């Protein structure tokens, strides 16, 4: 059986004016598929083998192509959103028929022009579609990276209970822990990050922040600016909840305490009476 969304080595069964018919075994009477004339390599004839990609064209007919699409079954790939409607989106994948992204397969509604990471699947009618869901199942956990390495990745899902899911190099499984501030990021954004840990299963933990001893100086200046914005006295202290500190400063509680400690050591703030005041 010829499966859509996959590459296949097929044999030329017969040549016609508008292309060649290909067959999986070369035996007549079995399922065959058309390779249009514009796609047929020069000099090819009956009995020759051609590697093709199988999909359904704009008329929903099973068709073969020698063009290489941007994605195939069992892969994930970043595709550009061409249009978004009430029923879903249409993605450019390099073939004449746009790849359909059903509304039910969106984790968040993209905009036309966005580039998002998707996986491919065949629906009940054997039509190829895209999904933003379960992308992690197709990502590799065999990355070449180690703790401390700088990497580039694409955000594909926000899992608020766990963190922000990232595909490093668009193919390796990674996550930014939930305590980091990602409020300015969107699905599809490409980020630079640092590997903080390689888990036993091969997945990567990432951080958008510098190593603590480097980041501390920037954090201290950000906290100082916030103190000044509050007329020299913060309305909360180091004992505030992590949620309050993250909302007000964009820092984890640990990073906030390091920044305050730095400012206190430099004698730029006073911590008496449980308040954080500018000196």
Describe the structure.
It is a single chain. This protein is mainly β and 279 residues long. It has four domains: 7-65, Nucleic acid-binding proteins (OB fold (Dihydrolipoamide Acetyltransferase, E2P)); 76-135, OB fold (Dihydrolipoamide Acetyltransferase, E2P) (Beta Barrel), CATH 2.40.50; 140-207, OB fold (Dihydrolipoamide Acetyltransferase, E2P), CATH 2.40.50; 212-278, Winged helix-like DNA-binding domain superfamily/Winged helix DNA-binding domain (Arc Repressor Mutant, subunit A, Orthogonal Bundle), CATH 1.10.10.10. Helix content is 14%, strand content 36%. The strands form four sheets. It has a five-stranded antiparallel β-sheet with strand order 3-2-1-4-5, with no helix packed on it. It has a five-stranded antiparallel β-sheet with strand order 8-7-6-9-10, with no helix packed on it. The chain has a five-stranded mixed β-barrel with strand order 11-12-13-15-14. A hairpin with a 5-residue loop joins β9 and β10. The longest helix has 18 residues, at 212-229. The protein is elongated. The protein starts with 6 loop residues before the first strand and ends with a strand.
- Give the terminus-to-terminus CA distance: 78 Å
**Tally of DSSP helical segments:** 3
CATH fold-level topology of the largest domain: OB fold (Dihydrolipoamide Acetyltransferase, E2P)
DSSP strand count: 17
Q: What is the residue-mean pLDDT, rounded to a whole number?
A: 91
SSE series: EEEEEEEEEEEEEEEHHHEE
Describe the protein's topology:
Layout: E1 7-16, E2 19-23, E3 32-36, E4 49-56, E5 62-65, E6 76-84, E7 88-92, E8 99-102, E9 115-122, E10 128-131, E11 150-159, E12 163-168, E13 172-177, E14 190-198, E15 204-207, H1 212-229, H2 242-249, H3 253-265, E16 269-270, E17 277-278
Parallel strand pairs: 13-15
Antiparallel strand pairs: 1-2, 1-4, 2-3, 4-5, 6-7, 6-9, 7-8, 9-10, 11-12, 11-14, 12-13, 14-15, 16-17
Helix pairs in contact: 1-3
């Amino acid at each position: 059986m010829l499966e859509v969304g996959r590459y296949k080595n097929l044999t030329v069964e017969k040549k016609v004016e508008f292309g060649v018919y290909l067959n999986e075994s070369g035996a007549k009477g079995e399922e065959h598929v058309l390779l249009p004339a514009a796609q047929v390599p020069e000099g090819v004839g009956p009995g020759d083998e051609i590697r093709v990609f199988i999909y359904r064209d704009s008329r929903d007919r099973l068709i073969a192509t020698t063009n290489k699409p941007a994605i195939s079954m069992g892969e994930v790939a970043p595709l550009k959103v061409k249009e978004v409607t009430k029923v879903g989106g249409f993605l450019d994948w390099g073939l004449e028929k746009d790849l359909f992204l059903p509304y039910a397969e969106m984790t968040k509604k993209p905009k036309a022009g966005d580039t998002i990471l998707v996986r491919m699947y065949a629906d009940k009618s054997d039509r190829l579609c895209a999904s933003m869901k379960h992308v992690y199942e197709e990502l590799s956990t065999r990355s070449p990276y180690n703790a401390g390495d700088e990497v580039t990745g694409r955000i594909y899902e926000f899992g608020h209970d766990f963190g922000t899911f990232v595909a490093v190099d668009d193919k390796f499984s990674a996550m930014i822990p939930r305590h980091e501030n990602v409020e300015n990021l969107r699905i599809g954004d490409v980020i630079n990050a640092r590997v903080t840990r390689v888990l036993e299963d091969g997945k990567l933990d990432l951080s958008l922040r510098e190593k603590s001893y480097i980041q501390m100086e920037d954090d201290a200046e950000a906290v100082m600016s916030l103190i000044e914005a509050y007329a020299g006295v913060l309305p909360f202290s180091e004992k505030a909840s992590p949620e309050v500190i993250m909302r007000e400063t964009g820092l984890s509680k640990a990073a906030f305490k390091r920044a305050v400690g730095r400012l206190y050591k430099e004698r730029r703030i006073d911590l008496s009476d449980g308040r954080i005041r500018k000196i």
